[in-house]
Amino acid sequence: MSPVTFVFVGVGGQGALSAAGFLGEAVFHKGIPVTVSQLHGMSQRGGSVQAAVTVGVEQVLSPASNPIDVLIGLELIEAARLKARLRPGSVVLCNDQVVAPSQAALQNLRLPSSAELVAELRRHAGAVRVIDGTALAEQAGSGWALNAVLLGALSALPQCPVSGDELLTAMLVEGSPRAREFNQRAFALGRQAASNQP
Amino acid sequence: MDPLLSTEVGRRELLLGNEAIVRGALEAGVGLVTGYPGTPASEIGDTFARLHRSLGIHFEYSVNEKVALELAFGASLTGVRALTSMKHLGLTYGADPLSTMPYIGVVGGMVIVSAADPGCLTSPNEQDQRHLGRMLGLPTLDPATPDEARRMTAWAFELSEVCELPVLLRITTRVCHTRAQVSFGALGPQRGLGTFRKDPKRFLPTPAHARRLREELQRRLDVACRMISDSPFNTAPAGSGAKALVAAGAPRNVVRAALDRLGQSVPVLELGALHPLPHELILPFLKQHEDVLVVEELTPYLEDSLLAIAHHFGLPVRIHGKRDEQMPWPFELELDEVERRVRHFLGLEPAAGPQPTPAAAIALPARGPVLCAGCLHRNVFFAASSVFGDEATYVNDIGCYTLGANEPHRAGDVLLAMGSSVPLASGIARSTGQRVVAFLGDSTFFHSGIPGLVNAVEHRDEVVVVILDNRITAMTGFQPNPTSPGATQSGRIPAVVRALGVEDLAVVDAADVHATVRALERAKRGRGVSVVVAEGPCAQWVLRHGSLTAQPPPTIDPSRCHTCGMAEAGLHCELSPSLRAQKRMAVQKEVPPERSRGTVAEVPRTSPCSLECPVGICIPAYVGAIAAGEPERAYQAVALRAALPSICAHICHRPCEERCVLGGPGSRPIAVNALKQYLTDRHTPDPVPQRPPSGQPVAIVGAGPAGLAAAKELVKRGYAPTLFDARERPGGMLEYAIPDYRLPPEVLRQDVAAVLALGIPFKGGRRLGRDFTVEALGDQGFAAVLLALGAQRGARPGMAGAQLPGVDDALSFLERPPSCRGEAVLVLGGGDVAVDVARTALRRGAATVTLCFPEPEAQLTAAGDTVRLAVAEGARLVPEHAATSLEAGADGRVSRAVLAAVRGFRRTAAGVTFEAAGPAQPLEVSRVVFATGQRSDLAGITLPAGLVRDNGWLGADVYGRTSSPWLFAAGDIVNGPDTVTAAMAGGVRAAWAIDSFLSAGREIAACAAPLPRPRAAHPDGPTPLTPSGVEGRGREVPLGSPSSLDPSTPLTTGFARDEREAAFNRLASGASNEPASLTADEALAEAQRCLLCGMCKNCNSCVELLGCPAIARTDGEPKIVAALCVSCGACEATCPNQAIGNRP
Predict the structure, then answer these.
(1) What are B20-51's pLDDT values in tens digits?
(2) How many Å lie between the alpha carbon of A82 and the closest alpha carbon of chain B?
(3) What global pTM score does this model have?
(4) Is B645 helix (H, G, I), strand (E, B) or coil?
(5) CA–CA–CA angle B885, B891, B896 (5° rounding)
(6) Contact A126, A88 (CB under 8 A)
(7) Which is nearest to A106 in space by CA: B410, B627, B572?
(8) Which chain B residue has the Cα nearest residue A43?
(9) ipTM, interface predicted TM-score of the complex
């Protein structure tokens, strides 16, 4: 298969890195060559985070290197920031949430709206799917389950190299029993949300 | 079981490079591991921390990298295989012991992992550690993938043991932080115990042995070179061709990917083992090609070596790379860039330019790292920047707290390296003579902060050292350090600091912002080294351990999240306090419960003192600015609203102080006016007009406080006023009735001159009704006329003897005080004017002065402090008495007054009527002065019909508008004698009304912005709250403040006058003159007592002063983001309006 690059992007603490890790594990256990490359800097203090999962080839490269085939955005501003790496054939799966950078509040900047950001993504990518992941995570029992919602949604896309069960299994290797419970619910809700979209 | 411990050979796992290194070390049978956390190497230590117990080997996070290196070396000397890991900066820190290790040589294999950070993602610099390997004699390996990292690590132990040298495994972020497939080798037997065998000739590199050891090092490097030549980590390509590439370390991946993209197969010499460089491999390669491009990160380390080899062997090959700018020098090599460079090197057609991306439709705000919600460092930086201000120099250090240098705290002007903050601060303090602030974290303190602190103590440097002890090394992922829970030094930093010789030490709970402010204030005033240890656990760490209090996030009460009434009325605040002053205001809000007489909630919209100010000065603004050490800004806040600021400061009757929430029994209000005088004594008004008066001419008749204030306000609004006055000099009552000892003539003249210097003509000696008429002013082209004539005629009641020689009215007496030498003076009246007369008489040599008034002493209308001064100077008070008649002596002059006790009295426009309660008592006198009232003096003046009311004053509304649209009136002439500040306020309001009239119907409110609010109209007739005297003490009721008009508003009540200790004046010392101005220290201390009640709607202090990620701003209003908030309480503690909290 030709290499496919999945990029997970979000705000530090949202779970972009672990989501990329789970996809990487699922692909790896299926026997497909894969690398997961992170870019996080001082991101655990609220900065932006991205991780690339390259499927079909082993590439130890900066995640900022390749055009993006599938972009999984846990936050809209961070997703839109990567627009230059999107191609007409790219697919974007994005959580419908704008997290204001704290500097923006400080400088009283006007934040782009969710609709503006989605429109911007649509100008660069072939398909953009937006789901209310934050609400679904809450519905599943915890805001921490946002990345599980997005992984569930990803599993419903034809571009996903692994099945929903394979991805879910990789995701549930870690975490407390309670976390596994809400993550499983969140995964199902995300998968359902993406399946229902045209 | 952890997969890393699997014994299954050939097992494949998806691992981070850092984890693969751990696996490699386990395969080599590592027996002891040390390290110091540092991105991107941190996961190596973290993984060993997780696994070492089940392996039975020792792992530790050492106190610093030098210690980690030394400890690992010690273990190696016993034959145990040892590994130590750190980031690049740490290896340089440990370079001293490192440099001698190759001389002694290792016994058990020793591997040093040092992670470089190309691109400075998490470091203050880039470093190419390969040079250190060559410089010190460390075999150096540089893996490209996680699996290679595993293999190299395992092999490095073997290499190290055979050549007896520590091996440097230089890795970079890309390898550390990529997950890729790793195949497991056999797990080695972990051997944690060795034997130390004495060998002084080798282990004691004294000069006697060092020369021989130097030669030994060369032999060891030869061994290493042979092993590297035979190693699988360097591969020479078979192919030939004119052009070839050389790639070293992680860029090998990028070169492969670039060639893939280009569809080219070019020979590539790939090097993973770099030192000593295997010539056997390189020489044939260089001989085969004409042009070679070297692709490596950071510096031309390899390129230079190849150049040297080519030169040495006289090869014709051309070496390209960074030296000839074919490759970029700094940062990580990205695929796109390398592809472009290789394409160019190979002479391929340039690729089509990048697809033009559609122009950005929206701007994306940047997202940098910030201190987490609930981070206690935030409190400390808030406090420090509030105490030390922007002018101080802050030296920061390495840790999460480096982020304190960002907005809004700006508590970091310099940053260098771990533990550098104190010595840097010492150097700056020495060379500037200033006290410098240094920040230091807990782990950094133990790492390398202690020597700098000892040094500062030894040399008595002027530094304030703030140690932020959050009990964990948070930045790199919560690694433990000596102050972490359960560790030996946990909570003992203060004890250590004290043991280092620090005498000035404070320990505060960082969660308590106010305590932190107080501690820092003390430290600021200290001498030599002051240390403040701010303790409190990392909120994120506590959050992860699930023990954070389950308090719900606080909410913002919109009814309290407010500003002063000015903004609500559509007026803008021009004061815009500095960030520092705002912080000061915020932290000073801490109201000790027992002192809180009226809470802010009871006085909505603005502070009680500002509500009382007749001219609308924003008192918290200037007191706050003084407290923040910004007197210039404070003066501007006063001068903005006070037309005659110095005069105001000298003679204001200070209604603000009566309403201060800090006042009350056993307590004293803020000395608001003394602070104002502190400012006006040190600043002169700026005489330069904003713009030269050029607008429509306005005539102002009367150059007293009302006329002067109106003239100044009109100039500000672009009009051209002219002042007329019957007297030769401007100033009115200020000039002629206020005694010099209360208002020094130079103060008066300075303020008046500043007004006239705005370009206002003053026509003195021109009396309305005698020299000109109101109508004539209209004929001269004045578009509006303001009458500010004052109440200039002293009144005498119609009692017997009131016209005798020796009997005066107060105004005549004060205008030209006669000699009173040896006289017995009786002053009738109890207002400020009466006291002025009494004290002037004493100064003019009176033998006795008696003040007789009908009120009980406690109800005197004169300011209590001046009454006490008069008594101290010798005046006698006869309260609850009134004169019934005056009698002449033989010389025809008054010689006796008949006084009677009164039971009740009443003031009317005609004077005081009273009911006698006791027998008449004669009093021998030689002079009597009536200070019982004043009248208007409209003799000879023609005014429009109906303008003069029955009581003799002019009919006008609060804005001075009369029945004639072009004619205005302000000051005492409207409502009778009132305070000087009331007259000034009236003048300003009349200027608004004139502006409104002349600008054809603009609303007064629009004209008023941002000027003071008008006071309510007086009722006609008797003015029961305003007794006699120029300085009456009527309650000012400003308009424009919604609450103040409602009489039921539970404002704090005034209190008995004798309790009004006149806040901080020094009159109690018995000095006979007015108090000298406050010293700077006194002013600062006094201003810092102020609670700064009532700041600003949507003041956004919480957003702008804290920079907390859990506080967002939606439609201009602060909102707490419940998902991020950890209920730390910082916003609650610093909200100036006490609007944030958990309220039911």
Answers:
(1) 999 999 999 999 999 999 999 999 999 999 99
(2) 11
(3) 0.72
(4) helix
(5) 25
(6) yes
(7) B410
(8) B369
(9) 0.96
